[in-house]
Specification:
By secondary structure, the protein is mainly β. The chain has 2 domains: 1-87, Pseudouridine synthase; 89-233, Pseudouridine synthase. The chain has helices at 35-47, 75-86, 169-176, and strands at residues 6-10, 14-19, 56-57, 66-72, 91-99, 106-116, 121-125, 136-150, 153-162, 200-208, 215-219. Strands 1, 2, 3, 4, 5, 6, 7, 8, 9, 10 and 11 form an 11-stranded mixed beta sheet that branches. Strand 1 (6-10) and strand 2 (14-19) form a beta hairpin. The chain is globular.
Length: 233
């Protein structure tokens, strides 16, 4: 069954949509559905375009992660938004459910990360003194939004603000402080109390419009199904 995209914003320059969990950001060798192809097909059908439609992929979300994605409808806009991403003026916030509870409502994690190409896992080092030369410094802030339980195990709902955007950053850094994300089979050690997908979603994004300069803010509500639902009641 063909996925129908949820469109948050569209004009002549940008297309902002919600990527469902389980959908790739762009195509790979598996031939599975991906957002870039889905949205190109959407543009071709909506505007009766002959041949292919241009759409620039500006960032990615891991396959099991639901969330806001921004695409460029022209190469000029792709360049301008990519520059914002490089300059870190784009704001990205993630919502996640992690194992355990926290003593303080807010915190931050600063560490050095390096992706191991052999294992496809990110290694975390506490500081520059213990990190190899090719490791990159990473920084995030988190806020505790609520506490609950999954299969009797205490969990916490967090809002995470990324200051750097490294591969698997949230997953690896949260696990490094003893609060792995629920459903994360790569970074959560020990017994798993949840059989579903990783509980991580990109729920908030802010960018400057590449032409008008207007600050655009996109946000999606918390999912209505469990275990997310327990935090919205």
């Amino acid at each position: 069954m063909k996925t129908c995209p949820t469109i948050l914003f569209e004009d002549n320059h940008l297309l902002v949509a919600v990527k469902p969990a389980g959908i790739l950001s762009q195509s790979d060798t598996t031939g599975a559905e991906d957002m870039l192809t889905i949205l190109k097909d959407y543009l071709i059908e909506k505007y009766h375009k002959p041949g292919q439609a241009y759409l620039g992929l500006l960032h990615r979300l891991d396959r099991p992660v639901r969330g806001v994605m921004v695409f460029a409808k022209t190469s000029k806009c792709a360049s301008r938004v990519s520059e914002q991403i490089r300059n870190r003026t784009v704001v990205k916030k993630y919502r996640t459910i992690v194992y355990g509870t926290f003593e303080k409502d807010r915190g931050e994690i600063r560490s050095f990360l390096r992706k191991n190409s052999k294992t496809n896992l990110v290694e975390v080092f506490p500081d520059a003194a213990h990190a190899p030369k090719d490791a990159k410094e990473c920084f995030l802030e988190y806020e505790v939004l609520g506490q609950g339980r999954i299969a009797g195990t205490p969990v916490s709902l967090l809002s995470v603000l990324l200051h750097t955007g490294r591969s698997h950053q949230i997953r690896a850094q949260m696990s490094s402080i003893g609060h792995p994300i629920v459903g994360d089979r790569k970074y959560a050690k020990g017994p798993h109390h949840f059989a579903g997908d990783i509980l991580l979603e990109s729920y908030h994004m802010e960018i400057d419009h590449p032409v008008s300069g207007e600050r655009l803010v996109f946000e999606i509500p918390i999912a209505e199904e469990e275990p997310w639902k327990q935090f919205s009641e």
